[in-house]
């Protein structure tokens, strides 16, 4: 009998271990799925609340300090400079912070889509699914700062706290009570930039990021970012222009070395 009880006890313990490992594995799978919920059109149900990155948003160099100050004090910020200077990360992180603190009602993100002249209609799915590959760089930062559960909630069409606004669907819209991010702005045309900037309403912080040295527009088509930098040449109480250089790259030493090699 003693041996039989020991066997039964061992079997029970083995089952408990298997169930525990199964639960842990399931939680790991859910964490992976959560980050892609709206990118793939899948909506999870009953997912456990997760944590968000609450680390301080700090400048790593003088120009980043100017950039953060501009986001906090100006309504329209143009930031131009080489890759890896933190333009996208800092703008998205500050937008998430403003949303969490209820300083704004929503975050609106735009990145130009050059393929098929913004003709997203050829891609399957709704507007969020069509734009998902282009939204990804900003999405990943918002996901980290908002947490996947809250991000999931914000992306729901009926909630609309995080919105995607491709140029093909922008005409006639007005952006209000929001942080609006236009990323990769060097790839918008002059007319697109004008249309974007005339969508802006009350209580908005508008952040226009880009690198005029990496313009992918067809030859002979002027970059809307380059044109805007000529029109808005100096800072004032509403507008700030931030210019990053190769030395401001913080992505990695290798990235900085690459910029130097191609400079």
UniProtKB/TrEMBL annotation:
Top-rank taxon, per record: Bacteria
Domain PhoH-like protein: 57-262
Pfam families in the record: PhoH
Keywords, comma-separated and alphabetical: ATP-binding, Nucleotide-binding
UniProt KW DNA-binding keyword: no
UniProt xrefs under InterPro entries: P-loop_NTPase (IPR027417), PhoH (IPR003714), PhoH2-like (IPR051451)
Record-linked Gene3D superfamilies: P-loop containing nucleotide triphosphate hydrolases
Family label: Belongs to the PhoH family.
NCBIfam families associated with the record: PRK10536.1
Protein name stated in the entry: Phosphate starvation-inducible protein PhoH
Upper classification of the organism: Bacteria, Pseudomonadati, Pseudomonadota, Gammaproteobacteria, Enterobacterales
Gene: phoH
């Amino acid at each position: 009998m003693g041996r039989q009880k020991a066997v039964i006890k061992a079997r029970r313990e083995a089952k408990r271990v298997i169930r525990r490992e199964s639960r842990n594995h399931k939680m790991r799978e859910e964490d992976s799925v959560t980050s892609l919920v709206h990118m793939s059109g899948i909506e999870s149900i009953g997912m456990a609340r997760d944590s968000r990155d609450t680390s301080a948003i700090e400048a790593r160099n003088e120009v980043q300090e100017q950039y953060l100050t501009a986001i906090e004090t100006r309504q329209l910020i143009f930031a131009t400079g080489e890759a890896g200077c933190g333009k996208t990360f800092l703008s998205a992180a500050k937008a998430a912070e403003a949303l969490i603190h209820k300083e704004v009602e929503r975050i609106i993100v735009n990145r130009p889509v050059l393929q098929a002249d913004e003709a997203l209609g050829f891609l399957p799915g709704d507007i969020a699914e069509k734009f998902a590959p282009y939204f990804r760089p900003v999405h990943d930062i918002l996901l980290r700062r908002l947490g996947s559960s809250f991000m999931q909630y914000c992306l729901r069409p009926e909630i609309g706290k995080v919105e995607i606004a491709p140029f093909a669907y922008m005409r006639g819209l007005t952006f209000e009570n929001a942080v609006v991010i236009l990323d990769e702005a060097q790839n918008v045309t002059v007319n697109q930039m004008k249309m974007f900037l005339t969508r802006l309403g009350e209580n908005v912080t508008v952040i226009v990021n880009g690198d005029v040295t990496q313009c992918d527009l067809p030859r002979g088509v002027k970059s809307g970012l380059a044109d805007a930098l000529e029109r808005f040449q100096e800072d004032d109480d509403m507008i700030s222009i931030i210019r990053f250089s190769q030395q401001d790259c913080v992505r990695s030493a290798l990235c900085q070395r690459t910029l130097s090699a191609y400079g």
